[in-house]
Specification:
four-stranded antiparallel beta sheet, single chain, 273 residues, alpha+beta, elongated, DNA-binding
DNA sequence: CACGACTCCTGCTGGC
DNA sequence: TGCCAGCAGGAGTCGT
């Protein structure tokens, strides 16, 4: 379920239950997810105190003094804090036990990942999966100029370029459609054909939409921590996503759906040129 | 290098 | 009711 806002809300939800606490057990119920679990993960983490949590794109980072646990939720993953006596369900693959609580990872499709990066392997930013990532959309370094500069040689459609994550991270399939709608840009437009003025609109739209989604998620943190229910932050009123053939909320014209790189895109042919 | 197709996996929905 | 195709919010890898 996770685009950047969901990962950030997850991080904020679990952080107070993890930071400063000592890992008492690690339980793996599967050989791995997208990749095998790190070798000897329990030996690496048990008895160690958790430091600061962080996030890079859609990767959640759990810091220790000797390295970083990297967690990715893939398409279907989520994390919850539960009382450690809670019986595991079918797709609960990974537990990080901290005293009487457990950080539990559920991931039916197993596209997620749990990886370890030791300090002896260098800076976390140089990790193979993180080094090629673009800038964080909510940081100062993200700007229209950055989008403009990095797209001069990109003939691919702007939607695809946003999803690629090498210029800006965290914009997933939903928020790519929503951001382009808000900016009034047709998702099929070749990235190099978009000028600075339109990238100003797009950068602003991405910032506002992601920030609003995080804010909405933040208000459901209590639900997020509940033992059963799913986090409630996905129920948003999207302008175009998943609204094929329904009237555009601005102009009333039917929202269109198409495929770009095997993924669904939604847009309003009237509002987005 | 940039791009697009393919891939991993399970669960749900919609059509017949 | 059952079966099956198609699709799902990600992203690494490979061939061109």
């Amino acid at each position: 379920m996770p685009e950047l806002p969901e990962v950030e809300v997850t991080r904020r939800g679990v952080a107070p239950h993890l930071e400063g606490r000592v890992v008492t057990a690690v339980i793996l119920r599967h050989s791995g997810l997208r990749w095998p679990f790190p070798v000897d993960l329990a030996e690496k983490l048990c008895g160690r105190r958790i430091g600061v949590t962080g996030r890079r794109g859609k990767y959640l980072l759990i810091g220790f003094d000797h390295g970083t646990l990297i967690v990715h939720l893939g398409m279907s993953g989520h994390l919850r804090m539960l009382p450690c006596v809670t019986p595991p369900q079918k797709h609960d693959h990974f537990d990080l036990v901290v005293g009487d609580q457990v950080l539990r990872m559920t991931d039916p499709r197993r596209f997620g990942a749990v990886l370890w990066h030791g300090h002896d392997e260098g800076a976390i930013s140089e990790h193979l999966l993180l080094r090629g990532l673009g800038v964080e959309p909510l940081e100062e370094s993200f700007s229209a100029q950055l989008l403009y500069r990095h797209t001069r040689n990109r003939s691919a459609a702007i939607k695809q370029v946003l999803l690629a994550g090498d210029i800006v991270v965290g914009v997933g399939n939903i928020y790519a459609s929503e951001s382009l709608f808000k900016a009034g840009i047709n998702p099929k437009t070749a990235a190099y054909r978009i000028g600075l003025a339109r990238y100003e609109k797009l950068a602003l739209a991405i910032r506002e939409i992601l920030a609003a989604a995080i804010e909405q998620g933040g208000s459901t943190l209590r639900d997020f921590m509940a033992a059963d229910g799913q986090p409630g932050y996905f129920q948003q009123n999207y302008f175009v996503y998943d609204r094929a053939e329904q009237p555009c909320r601005i102009c009333g014209m039917a929202v269109r759906q198409l495929k770009q790189g095997q993924r669904s895109t939604f847009y309003c042919p009237n509002c987005q040129k």
